[in-house]
Amino acid sequence: MKLEELKVLASELKLGDVLVKSEDVILSIDGRGDLKKTFPVPNCSKCLEKCCPSGVAVSLFDIPRLADRGLDKFLAGRFEGYVELFLADDGGESVKLSRPYMAPETSESKYCVFLNEERRCSIYEDRPLICRAYPVAVRIDEDRNRLALWLGGCQNYEISTDEAAFRRLLSSAIQDYNEKVTANALLMHSRNKLRECGFGKYMEDEWQILIDRHKKGKEMQKQISDLQQVVDRLRAPQDYTSIIQRLQSENDWLKERMVALENEMAQQRERAHSIISDLTRQLSSEHSKLVESFLRQNGKQEKRHFWKR
């Protein structure tokens, strides 16, 4: 794979109108120099932070650059979901985006494979474009303005009069953005030619793309069908009179049922009082009989004792 071959393929797409030009970029780097005489410049030589994470993603154009230097053996992963990035309404926020990356030494590695023991980049002159641009990045806002932003991860910088150093960062950020746009277009329209140039192992399988799009199509059809049902229900004429009558009827039935329950409870109370009264009379009668029987028995015993005396 050759970088020149990739540039030739890109030139065939005629993307000049969609690529960012330096004169179109608005600097949005508040509080870091006046950007006329003073500029923020990272001081990597004095930085003690290991800010280079494991698995730094590379662009389609970085692959032949690294391959020319024999560093492509450290690359892993493929472009997946990449073709959808600039088609999504939200700018790709909901897109599962994957790109080839610089593989870590082990699955537990937290830092870039090229960060040496002295916390320095061991391939500094050959580092990917995203590393050259960091911490400056170009983004498109909701009004389609091209903004150059200072990413918050870099804290070790100096406010310098070295405009050339800052302009190199900005130029790399613009180039990084344009290469992403160009790579996206190539992955959409020139996939077969990319494979012929040797990029096949870094590309998602076409059949998988078709399957994923088919799934998305079916999901979209289901959403449209559900939405149509909701619209149809809203548009359907509503017979509010019959609904009110039904509710009134149900309310009347509930009222009648409540009255019936109250009557039934009253009848139950009357039955309970009647049963209690009957039981009370029976107990009183039985008690009287017991008392009379006791008195009779007691009188007889007294007469016997009298004759004995």
Entry summary:
With 309 residues, the protein is mainly alpha-helical. The chain is built from seven helices and seven strands; from the N terminus they run H-E-E-H-E-E-H-E-E-E-H-H-H-H.
Give the SSE layout.
Elements: H1 3-12, E1 25-28, E2 39-42, H2 62-68, E3 75-76, E4 101-102, H3 129-133, E5 136-140, E6 146-150, E7 157-160, H4 163-189, H5 191-196, H6 206-235, H7 240-308
The tally of domains stands at 2
Radius of gyration: 45 Å
Side by side, the strands of the main sheet go 1-6-5
Give unreliable regions as ranges.
none
Structural class by SSE content: mainly alpha
Can you give keywords for this protein?
50% helix, mainly alpha, 309 residues, two-stranded antiparallel sheet, 7 strands
What does this protein look like?
The longest helix is centred in the last third of the chain and has 69 residues, at 240-308. The chain starts with a helix and ends with a helix. The chain contains seven helices and seven strands, in the order αββαββαβββαααα. 50% of the residues lie in helices and 8% in strands. It is elongated, with a radius of gyration of 45 Å. With 309 residues, it is mainly alpha-helical. The strands form three sheets. The protein has a three-stranded mixed sheet with strand order 1-6-5, covered by helices on one side. A two-stranded antiparallel sheet has the order 2-7. It has helices spanning 3-12, 62-68, 129-133, 163-189, 191-196, 206-235, 240-308; strands at 25-28, 39-42, 75-76, 101-102, 136-140, 146-150, 157-160. It folds into two domains: 3-209, no CATH class; 235-302.
